[in-house]
Design a protein that fits this description.
By secondary structure, the protein is of the alpha+beta class. It folds into two domains: about 40 residues; about 80 residues, SH3 type barrels (Roll), CATH 2.30.30. Helices cover about 30% and strands about 30% of the residues. It is built from three helices and eight strands.
């Protein structure tokens, strides 16, 4: 990528200057300037793009408030982000993404670990825990617990 940057830069700066200049001193001066700029461009490090689905600990909205038993569980709702909701007449589905970028699609009644998807709204999914309480996740990746929904 940096090779093409240098090539384009050279073609834009060097060719018009060399073709219209009268003296060799100007050509040498421009050539030295281009070489300096090319060295600076070569020293720049290539930075890889971030994978938008490969979340990390910093993106968890409640990283400080996660219960201890939920931190160790891979299938904890706190480790997922809500990616999509599809609600139909007969069937309804949600898609959630874990920190590794893997997408899970659940329909109503299916379990994610020990919690069951029981309902969904326009912008959130509702899970029921074994103790009868509910966990609600929204598109902002905020997970909250409630006695009823």
């Amino acid at each position: 990528m940096s090779f093409f940057k240098i090539l384009i830069f050279l073609s834009l700066i060097l060719i018009p200057t060399i073709s219209f200049s009268d003296s060799h001193d100007q050509k040498k001066e421009v050539l030295e300037q281009v070489k300096e700029i090319a060295k600076e461009m070569e020293d720049d490090e290539e930075v890889p793009l971030n994978d938008p689905f490969a979340g990390n600990e910093g993106t968890s909205s409640m990283s400080g408030n996660i219960p201890e038993d939920e931190q160790e569980n891979e299938l904890s709702l706190y480790n997922f982000k809500l990616a999509g909701l599809i609600s139909g007449k007969d069937y309804s589905y949600i898609s959630i993404v874990n920190s590794g970028g893997e997408v899970l699609t659940l329909s109503l009644g299916q379990y994610l670990g020990k919690i069951q998807l029981v309902d969904l709204r326009l912008n959130e999914a509702i899970f029921k825990k074994e103790d009868g309480k509910f966990m609600i996740i929204d598109f902002n990746s905020q997970v909250r617990e409630a006695d009823d929904y």
